[in-house]
Amino acid sequence: MRTASSRTARDVAQSTRRGLAMLELVLSLPILLMVMGLMILIGWAGAFKVRSQVHAREAVWRSIHRATIPGAGQVLPGQPGDVPPILLSVDRSPG
Description:
single chain, mainly alpha, rod-shaped
């Protein structure tokens, strides 16, 4: 049986490192949460960029359609569950 004075250097090193995994997790958790939040933010920004490009494209199509066919250019119906489109106007004045 070992006494307190007969402890080896390995035993001392193991006893001083006890609980460091939890400390490392707690220290790295804010960084991990920040990275996850940035991933979500970048995803939302990409989705809204695509959405705005689609609405701009539809506004141009409506403008061209309205200019070429009389009585056309009404708001196009969307799919069920879609967010209502943003109504954009196009300035067709010369100059």
